[in-house]
Structures are given as C-alpha cells and as structure tokens.
C-alpha cells in the first residue's frame, strides 16, 4: 500500500495528524510519497522539513518531489527560471514574498533542490502538477484530451497529482489522440494513439484547509484506491 500526500504547506499539525492516521491502519504502508508543496507561507515550514527529513522510529522516509511552492522558493533565492518571482508577486504581493523569504531558509531551499520532479513507479506517474510543469493544475473539469495528453507524454496508466488540492478519480475509458509533425518541407505521417482504461487521480491536500487533511491510499497490485480525510485541532 502506498500513502500519497501533497499540499502540506508548512502545516505541521496537519502532517502529524496524517502520520498518526497512517499508524492506525490495519495494513502496512510500504511507500510514502509527498507530491510537492511541502513548504508554504507558514512559519512552521522549517519544522515540517525537519520532521520529514528525520522520521520517527518505525516511520518510512518520505519520497518527496517538488511543487509550486518549492519552485517559488527557487525563484526567490535566484535558483530558478524566474529570478524576479513574478508569479509569486502577482498572487501574493510583496508581503507574500517577504513572508516566504522568512519562512524558508536558503539551507532548506538547497535541500529542496535535491528532490525529484516526479516519480514513475510501475505504470504510475506521481507528480505535483504534470510532466508539463509543477503549475499544471488538473481537475475533473480539465478537457479529456488534455488529460489524455498528460498521460500519453509519459506512457502512464495512472497519474497521481496534487496541484489542485482536490481528491478525485477521473477515468478515461475510450478515446484516441492523433499527432503529427509539420516541418517546412513536409508533414510527417499522423500517429494515432488509442488508450486502454487510464486514470488521473487527485490526491487531496494535507495542510491547505484548517482542521481537515485529505490524502490517498493506493495498492498498485490490486489497483485499489481510497481517499482519506483526517480531522485535527488547528
């Protein structure tokens, strides 16, 4: 069984609530994934990173990939593709920029840079947004051809994502997508891809909503999926 988390955003109490819930399950958890947004505009972000890096006795060491907030940290410290942190400024203003700077240290940012962009396990892609970018927000309202494109890019049958913060299971049963390459000289032959049953799964968010944390359990062998909600005192 896998436990898949996302969107902790520096909420230590929410993370502890989920870890306690995992210990109460009647089956062993073999893998623990955190799909980005480990940190956020929260003074406890440093404490969350330390908690993840040093698991308690009997706990798994989480496998962490980067999310939207991690990318903003990279930009803020001049280590990303947008050193002016334009997206962060537009969404949260100068106060948000200052708060993120205060909440996440350069040392922590260096550790975050060592984490993965995503994970491909068996036929499953586990990632914050999609293979396009960490900010690619997939939801049940996303057009089916877009979801199919995101799956086909990495030839995955299951795509677990956390950017939206929602829990959902979206199944593509039938359909096809055609593609071709047009050069200055000629158009290459069209290739048509017809998928078998594929799914895009929103894994929820741990720390975004005060007092309620959501995450996902998945058994890849049995293709068993369960969404979990944990209440805690904020």
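^ Assign residues to that structure.
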């Amino acid at each position: 069984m896998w436990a898949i988390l996302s969107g902790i955003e520096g909420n230590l109490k929410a993370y502890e609530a989920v870890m306690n819930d995992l210990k109460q399950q009647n089956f062993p958890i073999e893998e623990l994934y955190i799909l980005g947004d480990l940190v956020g505009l929260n003074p406890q972000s440093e404490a969350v990173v330390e908690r993840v890096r040093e698991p308690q006795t009997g706990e798994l060491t989480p496998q962490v990939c980067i999310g939207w907030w991690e990318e903003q940290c990279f930009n803020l410290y001049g280590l990303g593709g947008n050193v002016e942190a334009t997206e962060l400024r537009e969404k949260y203003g100068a106060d948000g920029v200052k708060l993120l700077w205060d909440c996440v240290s350069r040392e922590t940012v260096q550790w975050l840079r060592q984490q993965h962009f995503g994970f491909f396990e068996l036929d499953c892609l586990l990632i914050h947004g999609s293979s396009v970018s960490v900010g690619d927000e997939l939801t049940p309202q996303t057009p089916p051809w877009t979801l199919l494109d995101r799956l086909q890019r990495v030839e995955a049958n299951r795509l677990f994502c956390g950017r939206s913060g929602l829990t959902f299971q979206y199944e593509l049963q039938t359909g096809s997508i055609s593609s071709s390459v047009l050069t200055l000289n000629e158009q290459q032959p069209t290739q048509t891809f017809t998928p078998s049953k594929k799914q895009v799964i929103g894994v929820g968010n741990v720390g975004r909503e005060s007092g309620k944390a959501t995450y996902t359990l998945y058994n890849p062998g049995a293709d068993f999926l369960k969404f979990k909600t944990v209440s805690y005192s904020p």
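Residues 37 and 69 are 5 Å apart (CA to CA).
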